[in-house]
Amino acid sequence: MTPLFKWKRSESKSVEERIREIFREEKIVKKGEYVHGNIYLTENHLVWIKKKKPDSVVIPLKSIVKAEQATKIGVGVGLKLIYGEEPKEIFFPFVKGRLRIGQVNDVREWVATLEKGEPSKVYLNIIYVGGHQAYPEKHNGQLIITENALIFQGKKDFEIEIPFKQIENISVKTASEISRLTTLLAGPLWSMGFPAKHKFVVIEYTDDIGLKHTPTFDFPLDRGDKKKGEVMRIIYNKIREARSGA
User: Fold this and answer.
1) 149-158 pLDDT tens trace
2) Residue 212: C-alpha distances to residues 95, 159, 188, 205 (Å)
3) Domain 5-108 of CATH type 2.60.120
4) Architecture of the CATH domain 121-244
């Protein structure tokens, strides 16, 4: 049985009924309105309600093998899914025309949400500069905030996951402050090309085996610290929720 449910015009009522049934029985955890239609993520399904064509799409989440950002000529940027026991491909277009950074972020958040199984906020162009005892090397990548953890993903399958319930402190520190307070980083940060007054987001947490770490992140494109402030507030609220048992 094919895990993708797709009906032609004569069967459009059936797919509409199926979507209404899903919306009645399952919580909507994420949604977005785009040029080509609306996308909904429920507890067990991904639903694409198209604007111009009657053949809307319903995909069971368990059938999805891979989700990634893609660009289709003449259609635009969007979300590409590989699904089913016999792998098939479908493209969810988000926008037409000129690509904007915000649109890329939106697609990345859908990809991360489907990969992690929970709503995710993604910050691109982040640098991990060190601070974890097992990973002293510098990495470029993305910071993902899920419902339960802070995750940094770099290239070559590099990933650090920090559960909010294990975070002891969050702060913004300069390179000189970090170099004075910790020996986890390999030498002064300004020796890596960072000015002494350059600011970083520092996470202090204890892992499952009792070791303490201070993973430190640089936001190189964050003039005025707006993005750092947004990340700090989100993490703070997630820690509150984790500690209150919400």
Assistant:
1) 999 999 888 9
2) 44, 17, 20, 6
3) no
4) Roll (2.30)
